[in-house]
Design a protein that fits this description.
The protein has 373 residues and is α/β, with parallel strands linked by helices. It is built from 13 helices and 13 strands. The chain has two domains: 134 residues, Enolase-like, N-terminal domain (Enolase-like, domain 1), CATH 3.30.390.10; 221 residues, Enolase-like C-terminal domain (TIM Barrel, Alpha-Beta Barrel), CATH 3.20.20.
């Protein structure tokens, strides 16, 4: 597979409503899109999920743009056979920049699958035609507003609800949602918002309101605190930001700090890396699931393909397109189907194509790279 050119686009989409977590409030999403064109004319696309501000991780749109333009894309175009694995091996010497690496790796996956005439799911070894998903509900202005919002998502057909929490927004909202909907599956996600001394406090309200999973309550390096929370817990303790590679997963497994694994392609540096981590977790008896980062239809498609792999057994945080965007950059949006499921696109590569109108409306800047002669 010889590459002819690469393009890096910066785009911005408006969210249908503000999305608030312990990191802050987002009303728009600015992101990068990598396009790789093969000598035969096929194009593969991958999305960089780094946000405008380096809050979820140390990466941002600015840092990703810099490493992609100064290193990753020029280096890639000098290589004769840039497969996904070969690319990841070539950039291993660069510390960090997982989200930028994942953007190129997923574009290569899309391109390689298209050239073979198979889906990304088939290329990765996936078999499901539909993946079960849940919905993530941001922090609301009031508890009654949260309960109403959860009700609307349940009416839409979602069966698993994940509530964003933080100190001061935990007991009351979780209690209210449980009281209104006694039979639904509730997860909570804190995005590292709690001090490590809060172990017993979290355990009390999570048990009291039958929370099925508590995700990343403590700082990413606070493995011992997560282990204390997980000890004899009746709920799963999920790690997200803590798991960035094989070593961090092994440390968490050895410490018994993890009983559920969130795999985000951008956080771990690629879909093939995420597949490997999920398989390792499964062998240790830890279920895995695919998390989302407010992706457009391009990144969402890659996530759905990854979630089709057998190693992922819990509902993914992927939701339908209209959960986040009224207007996306792909021709065919993802629509929630029966059983709280999304269809896995069956065409070559990601199986989704850009909407030229939506793409032009969202694009803010572009830069092209040619293969050296």
């Amino acid at each position: 597979m010889e590459l002819r050119s690469a393009r890096l686009h910066e785009l911005e989409l408006e969210l249908v409503e503000p999305f608030e977590t312990s990191f802050g409030v987002e009303t728009t999403r600015r992101f990068l899109l990598v396009e790789l064109e093969a000598a035969g004319g096929e194009v593969g696309r991958g999305e960089c999920v780094a946000a405008t501000e380096p809050l979820y991780s140390g990466e941002s749109v600015a840092t990703a743009r810099e490493i992609l333009t100064s290193r990753f894309l020029p280096d890639l175009l000098r290589r004769p056979v840039p497969t996904p694995d070969a690319f990841l091996a070539s950039v291993e010497r660069y510390r960090g920049h997982a989200m930028a690496k994942a953007a190129v790796e997923t574009a290569l996956l899309d391109l390689a699958a298209r050239e073979r005439g198979v889906s990304v799911s088939a290329y990765l070894g996936g078999g499901r035609r539909r993946v079960e998903v849940g919905v993530s509900v941001g922090i609301q202005r009031t508890v009654p507003a949260l309960v109403r919002r959860v009700g609307r998502y349940l009416d839409d057909g979602y069966r698993r609800i994940k509530l964003k929490v933080r100190p001061g927004w935990d007991v009351a909202p979780v209690r209210a949602v449980r009281a209104e909907y006694p039979d639904i599956e509730i997860w909570v996600d804190a995005n590292q918002a709690y001090p490590t001394r809060a172990v017993e406090r979290i355990r009390r309200w999570a048990d009291a309101y039958h929370v099925a999973q508590v995700e990343q309550p403590f700082a990413e390096r606070a493995i011992r605190a997560h282990a204390r929370l997980a000890a004899d817990a009746r709920f799963r303790v999920c790690l997200d930001e803590s798991i960035v590679d094989d070593v961090s997963l092994e440390d968490a497994l050895e410490a018994r700090a993890i009983t559920s694994l969130n795999v985000k392609t951008g956080r771990v540096g690629g879909a093939t890396v995420g597949r490997r981590l999920a398989r390792r977790a499964v062998t240790a008896g830890v279920p895995a699931w695919v998390g989302g980062m407010l992706e457009s239809g391009i990144g969402r498609a890659h996530n759905v393909h990854l979630a089709s792999l057998a190693a992922f057994t819990l509902p993914a945080d992927l939701s339908a397109s209209d959960r986040y965007y009224a207007s996306d950059i792909v021709e065919t949006p993802f629509v929630l189907g029966p059983g709280s499921r999304l269809d896995v696109p069956r065409g070559p590569g990601t199986g989704v194509e850009l909407s030229e109108r939506g793409f032009r409306r969202a694009r803010r800047a572009s830069r092209s790279f040619r293969r050296p002669r």
